[in-house]
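Query structure, 199 tokens:
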């Protein structure tokens, strides 16, 4: 099935109602920059492959798209055969390189089952705590900006005050152990794979 959305609003609505295998994301949508959609896509329970399509051919634009969470980048016009080859390549990388279970000391995060265990015991997380943890656990050791985490946490169009993200980070630290989620001042947060299990 192929759906076409000509605006960010349409794309957000489609992502909330359908589980896609891949998203071809044009940076020039009718109501804004397509990159602003990436944090929400990455926060989905089963994030699709994302290939950014754009006429922009500047290296800085490609870097910006990849750093925002895109799996690949194609400059328009492109050959459909190349697009299919890139989709297959991303799928091979995902299949070969990623385990849905992340082990961090005595902490086990199972992304496929939406389950966390600490010392073998289940850890209960709210939906928003899961949204936040999923973004960080999908790309551990990566620095996630406050803006990207807030966008993943509050979904499509919700707004939050400046302290709300810190409240959810604090709750996760309490449940998972303080050292697993690190603050990098002025940059954001990251889920550390080398941290201990400090309470």
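Result returned for the query:
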């Amino acid at each position: 099935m192929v759906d076409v959305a000509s605006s960010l609003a349409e794309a957000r609505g489609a992502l909330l109602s359908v589980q896609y295998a891949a998203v071809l994301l044009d940076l020039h949508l009718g109501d804004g920059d397509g990159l602003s959609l990436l944090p929400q896509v990455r926060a989905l329970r089963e994030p699709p492959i994302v290939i950014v399509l754009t006429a922009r051919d500047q290296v800085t634009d490609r870097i910006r798209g990849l750093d925002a969470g895109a799996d690949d980048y194609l400059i328009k016009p492109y050959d459909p055969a190349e697009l299919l080859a890139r989709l297959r390549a991303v799928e091979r990388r995902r299949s070969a390189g990623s385990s849905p279970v992340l082990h961090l000391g005595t902490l086990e995060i199972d992304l496929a089952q939406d389950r966390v265990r600490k010392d073998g015991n289940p850890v209960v997380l709210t939906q928003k705590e899961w949204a936040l943890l999923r973004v960080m656990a999908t790309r551990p050791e990566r620095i996630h900006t406050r803006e990207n985490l807030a966008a993943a946490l509050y979904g499509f169009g919700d707004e939050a005050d400046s302290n709300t993200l810190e409240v959810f980070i604090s709750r996760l630290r309490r449940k998972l152990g303080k050292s697993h989620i690190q603050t990098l001042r002025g940059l954001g947060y990251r889920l550390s794979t080398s941290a201990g299990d400090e309470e």
